[in-house]
Write a structure and sequence with these properties.
It is a single chain. With 773 residues, the protein is of the alpha/beta class. The radius of gyration is 27 Å and the shape is globular. Helix 4 crosses helix 8 and helix 12 crosses helix 13. The N terminus is likely disordered. The protein contains 22 helices and 30 strands. The strands form 9 sheets. It has a 5-stranded parallel sheet. Strands 16-17-18-19-20 form a 5-stranded mixed sheet. A 4-stranded mixed sheet has the order 6-5-15-14, sandwiched between helices. It comes from Urochloa decumbens. Catalyzes the conversion of long-chain fatty acids to their active form acyl-CoAs for both synthesis of cellular lipids, and degradation via beta-oxidation. Keywords: ATP-binding, Fatty acid metabolism, Ligase, Lipid metabolism, Nucleotide-binding.
Length: 773
């Protein structure tokens, strides 16, 4: 899978050893810029750039000054004069940049960093000089270059380099913590240091060499978050193995497909997932070694006959490597670090190939805006097989953060938070929505003075934040400290990713928990972050500005009526380019070409618009859209996210097709909320399943959905006209959810085929019964 290197862009004229070198297209002339190798030449490049700006309408910025890392001195003359002459020659082709929207200019905020001239958090530049179209957005933190290394540590080019740096810097600091004891009991968190983790990393890597595992081999990780997962991943980086994470919730078919597709030779698992593996181990001829992670007395079953597979414990492998330590086999930045199989809502899993450079570039860029500290504590419970948590680990490691692991049971997560008391909390909207619903419902149930006090405190703090003032600490003491205690009481930073977070919930989290709450946007194919909100940005309802490691543009989607000419904001499919873009899908060049075009742009399938200040807002989804009978395009995920705020709804699946003119919905109910409603209405029922079939319950839920939809300003055809309530939640076990808790739409359609058919039949019956004019 060849690395794509054609990035024709005016914005890449300036390079140093930490920049991505791309050809610059100037009319019919193509050239690869040389590195700027001294502070003097960087200053000269800045001055030349300002000169070009004045002649070609490019917005200048005090923020457009490159960093001044130490670089080897260049002997030859800088190419900037020649570049400037070429730019001047084609300046007539340039149209003026888009006029700033009213209110676009942002006042300087010392907590939010500096801004590019009139464009807020982003700098807008032309993709190609010949077109004169200003459509490429970059971070105002680094508008002249795409970051692919940590500016303060440019020698770090691989995950192995990153870990070596962390061990040298934070050797005796806490690194990995767990509450689970060797006998399986649970207590306070116990920690191993960065130095101790390094020793274990070397032992595991050496143990794999002891078993004849060659450089470049694929190593599967088939268990939930725990310290051994991180240690094995570090061993893969140090000895040039390729990690292949496997969600512990994957069923036999998916695991068998991924292992065979990626030719996995070694699988690390726990006793629970070992039993799954053994049920089809004979169907995976590439597997040579299975390593069981667990307590010292973990029982190893007999090796299956006629397979050639050896099964050993993690402790035995560790001891084998400890007895015969081997030198590292350091990877190169362009080497493959991992193959992450996307869970996918349709079809078979796809293996996204990510290099060391991809992962380091993504974290190095996003770290320019979000910093962590050795005093920080983080709880790891999001699946490590997902790129969101994987990228978090790379960043936290670089800054010496202590990482505590949950017990492995989501129902005990709050207990783990109370014991660990983290300062950084990363989550997904599904959990934040549950926190929001639990607190708001508790407030309503409290009634009287407590409810009035909460709303008084909430509104007072909200007004203070909106006006830029510091809220009175009295409100935290009276109300919000009790809420903060639910997450341990020390959280200073909350992040959200994987799917959109509603503005109401975002505001609620900021007010109730008091720290920074940032939403980001990304995907596996971009090594995680494409855009993220900036510290100090008070506006909500967006996903921030571009990661300094990539550039972003919107491409017209005429079939959905989204174009770059839309007013007041440009709209279109979100595309990203830069060193964070993956190498392609493993063994699948066809699908790779479907998402990466000839100019190196990754087409995400998401629809966005640019808000004032250079902020991106996700508004739609291209891939999952469908048409109703009258031609209206529907983005079901957007509607489901709106309905997620309904108090009766735990999960929702919105369905429609081109044969029907309206939408219907399947709702997995919140049991306690529906039961409380039934009690208040005096409705008798035998069990939850029977209550879900009661027409009065359906009517109440649909009425609440209508109310929520009106608040969100859904268009008329976006409202569900009928609803079916189900007592059974959507789960991984019944095949309705991916491991990242997204609805599998084709499977849900088949699973609820009868309910969908019945709802449409009822709607037709109701329509035909109406008097005709």
């Amino acid at each position: 899978m060849g690395k794509r290197q054609i990035y024709p862009s005016f914005t890449l004229l300036f390079n140093d050893e930490n920049l991505v070198e791309h050809p610059v297209e100037l009319g019919s002339t193509r050239c690869t810029p040389r590195s700027l190798n001294s502070t003097r030449q960087i200053s000269h490049a800045r001055d030349s750039f300002a000169s070009v700006c004045s002649s070609s309408h490019l917005p200048t910025s005090h923020h457009a000054t490159p960093t001044t890392e130490t670089m080897p001195r260049e002997q030859e003359q800088s190419p900037m004069d020649a570049a400037q002459r070429r730019l001047s020659a084609v300046s007539a082709h340039l149209q003026p940049p888009p006029a700033p929207t009213a209110g676009c200019v942002l006042a300087a905020n010392p907590t939010a960093g500096e801004y590019a001239h009139v464009q807020g958090y982003s700098a807008i530049l032309p993709e190609k000089l010949q077109t004169g179209k200003w459509n490429v957005y970059r971070s105002a933190r680094s508008p002249l270059r795409l970051i692919n290394r940590f500016p303060e540590n440019p020698d770090i080019g691989t995950l192995h380099d990153n870990f070596i740096y962390a061990v040298e810097t934070f050797r005796d600091c806490r690194y990995l913590g767990t509450r689970i004891r060797e006998d399986g009991t649970v207590g306070d968190y116990k920690w191993i240091t960065y130095g101790e983790t390094s020793t274990s990393r070397t032992a595991i890597g050496s143990g794999l060499i002891h078993h004849g595992i060659l450089e470049g081999a694929r190593i599967g990780l088939y268990f939930i978050n725990r310290p051994e997962w991180i240690i094995v991943d570090h061993a893969c980086a140090a000895y040039s193995y390729v990690s292949v994470p496997l969600y512990d919730t994957l069923g036999p078919d998916a695991v068998q497909f991924i292992v065979n597709h990626a030719t996995v030779e070694v699988i690390f698992c726990v006793p629970q997932t070992l039993s799954t593996l053994l049920s089809f181990i004979t169907q995976m001829p590439c597997v040579r070694l299975v390593v069981v992670v667990g307590e010292e007395d973990v029982k190893i079953p007999p090796t299956p006959a006629n397979t050639g597979v050896q099964i050993i414990t993690y402790l035995k492998l560790h001891n084998q490597g400890k007895m015969s330590p081997q030198p590292f086999r350091p990877p190169k930045p362009d080497d493959i670090a991992t193959v992450c199989y996307t869970s996918g809502t349709t079809g078979t899993p796809k293996g996204a190939v990510l290099s060391h450079e991809n992962l380091i570039a993504n974290v190095a860029g996003s770290s320019l805006g979000i910093r962590f500290y050795p005093s920080d504590v983080y709880i790891s419970y999001l699946p490590l097989a997902h790129i969101y948590e994987r990228a978090n680990q790379v960043a936290l490691l670089h800054y010496g953060v202590a990482i505590g692991f949950y017990q492995g049971d989501n129902l005990k997560l709050m207990d783990d938070l109370a014991a660990l008391r983290p300062t950084v909390f990363a989550s997904v909207p599904r959990l934040y929505n549950r926190i929001y619903a639990a607190i708001t419902n508790a407030v309503k149930e409290s009634g009287g003075l407590k409810e009035r006090l909460f709303h008084t405190a909430y509104n007072a703090k909200r007004q203070a934040l909106l006006s830029g003032r510091n809220p009175s600490p009295m409100w935290d003491k009276l109300v919000f400290n009790k809420i903060k205690a639910r997450l341990g009481g020390r959280v200073r930073l909350m992040t959200s990713g994987a799917s959109p977070l509603s503005s109401d919930v975002m505001e609620f989290l900021r007010i109730c928990f008091g720290g920074e709450v940032l939403e980001g946007y990304g995907m596996t194919e971009t090594s995680c972050v494409i855009t993220t909100m900036d510290i100090g940005d008070k506006l909500i309802g967006h996903v921030g500005s571009p990661n300094p490691s990539c550039e972003v543009k919107l491409v017209d989607v005429p079939e959905m009526n989204y174009t770059s000419e839309d007013q007041p904001y440009p709209r279109g499919e979100i595309c990203a380019r830069g060193p964070i873009i993956f190498r392609g899908y493993y063994k699948d060049e066809v699908q790779t070409r479907e998402v990466i075009d000839e100019d190196g742009w990754l087409h995400t399938g998401d629809i966005g618009l640019w808000l004032p200040g250079g902020r991106l807002k996700i508004i739609d989804r291209k891939k999952n859209i469908f048409k109703l009978a009258q031609g209206e395009y529907i983005a079901p995920e957007k509607i489901e996210n709106v309905y997620a705020k309904c108090k009766f709804i735990a999960q929702c699946f919105v369905y429609g097709d081109s044969f029907n003119s309206s939408l219907v919905a399947i709702v997995a109910v919140e049991p306690e909320v529906l039961k409380a409603w039934a009690a208040s209405e005096g409705i008798q029922y035998e069990d939850l399943r029977q209550l879900c079939t009661d027409p009065r319950a359906r009517a109440a839920v649909l009425a609440d959905m209508d109310s929520i939809g009106k608040e969100a300003q859904l268009r008329g055809f976006e409202f569900a006209k009928a609803v079916t309530l189900v007592a059974e939640p959507f789960t991984l076990e019944n095949g309705l959810l991916t491991p990242t808790f997204k609805v599998k739409r084709p499977q849900a359609k088949a699973y609820f085929a009868k309910e969908i058919s019945d709802m449409y039949a009822q709607l037709r019956e109701t329509e035909s019964a109406r008097p005709k004019l």
